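Batch manifest, entry 17 of 40.
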Amino acid sequence: MKKHLFLTGEKQVGKTTAIRTFLERWQGEVAGFVTCSQVDQGGRRVYVCSPDGSQRMLAVRFTSPEHRDPCDPKAFEGLAVQLLEESARPGCITLMDELGFMESGIRPFTQAVLHRLSLPWPVLGVLRKEENPFLRSVAEHPLVEVVSVTEENRDRLPGQLYEYYTTDRTWQEIR
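Output type: structure tokens
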């Protein structure tokens, strides 16, 4: 049975919102990492953060509208790897929100993600909808189920996620 779910879909369709809404109801432990943004006059900054926001490290400062500026690998090979390692324990859902192009070339991070996916405790994450070898390896991992988020299903997803993580039912049985 697959244990890990990754949401994917178009930008702004509601992937992270579905996860946040699910977490408002979730009574269990949550760890891992999220990426959070801050916009100011100098551009958009993206941080690697713990889910509760108590730890964070600047990953990239975007200065162009294309958002393809290089990231600081220390945020992913340092803090993100640490947060992933700390999350690998019974009774804890590991968040990975989101996996995308910035970190796909940072080997210590990609190895930590793939290692974490090989462990039995559940993961809930977001995969950017783009093609690269790292994201493909996550999507094709034998313990991963990829769920497409659309405008039609996004409002049902938080409840379905809750049912998935609190019962023994498969994703196919729930959706």
